[in-house]
Amino acid sequence: MGSVGDPTAAVPAGRPRRMTLPKSHGREDPVFKQATVFTETPAHGAAFIFIHGLGDDAKGLEDVADQFQKNNKLPYMNWILPNGIEDKDAMQRAWYRPTQFKPFPADRPELKEEEDEEGMRKTVEYIESLIDACVNKGLPPNRIILGGFSQGAAISLLTDLTSAKYGGKLAGIVSLMGYLPLADGYKIQDLRAKCGLPPTQGEVPCFLARGKKDQLIPARIWEGTLKKLGDMGLKKGAMDIHEYDDLGHSISAPVLSDLCTWMQRVVPKLED
What residue stretches are annotated with the Phospholipase/carboxylesterase/thioesterase domain (predicted)? Predict the structure, then answer.
């Protein structure tokens, strides 16, 4: 895998802080939004790897980063917005073959749609390479937030639970209108065992948000996600759970406000 820097990123005068991000075959380069405030000590910066959902791309989330930076929120944070690969079957960008959730579970196990575990694992490997780039720049894992919307949220949760490199080590995980994939049975536990991870997870803070009118992620899937995270050892104190009455499968201003407050807590400003 090669690498590429973002030549369009704005660099403070006299402060070359170029980050080299991985280049993946068949995938557009990530959008990189450099921190607007330079930190003399690299480890005092922060990064948010923010993953888009099904059918979207990195530019679809760029406005969120712009809002934070224009309002001087977490100015020491670098934003990395990766791109999914065009799924020829789904005819849209995806991180893995999508699954359709119904409000009620299938009557028989054989009727349940099979999840794309292979596609998910390949995506987790790509996300690990983005985290590697941040670490190589001097950011410790506990100054890196990983999160996303919908499929991006699913990949973020799965990375935290199954990454041999970074499972349980990041500053926090953000799940916006998402769910935990491979939650049935012991699939996640088996993946953790293969990676040499302990049976249960550590106390990585998680920001979990869902719109109560979200028809793509039914309430039973949301509730199953919270239960599975608890079963994996994540205590309620580590889960910052938000449900929004009038929100569907989208991001709203109240969501971003709550997210900002949470991020300021998990990656606070550090004095040089």
Answer: 36-264
Longest dimension (CA), the chain: 64
- The answer to whether 174 and 160 have CB atoms below 8 angstroms apart is no
Report how far residue 241's alpha carbon sits from residue 66's, in angstroms, rounded to the nearest whole number: 25
Give CA–CA dist 164/186, Å, rounded. 17
Per DSSP (E only), the strands in the chain are 2-5, 20-23, 31-33, 46-51, 77-81, 85-87, 92-94, 144-149, 172-176, 206-211, 239-244
What pLDDT digit, counting tens, does each position of 213-261 carry? 999 999 999 999 999 999 999 988 899 999 999 999 999 999 999 999 9
Asked if residue 210 lies in contact with residue 243, where contact means CB atoms within 8 angstroms, the answer is yes
Q: What is the pLDDT of residue 240?
A: 98
Domain ranges, ordered by start, for the chain: 28-266
Q: How far is it, in rounded angstroms, from Cα 260 to Cα 207?
A: 10
Q: Where are the alpha helices (DSSP H) in 78-174?
A: 117-136, 151-162
What is the average pLDDT across 26-32?
Answer: 94
CA 129, CA 1: separation in Å to the nearest integer?
9
CA atoms within 13 A on the CB side of 192: 19
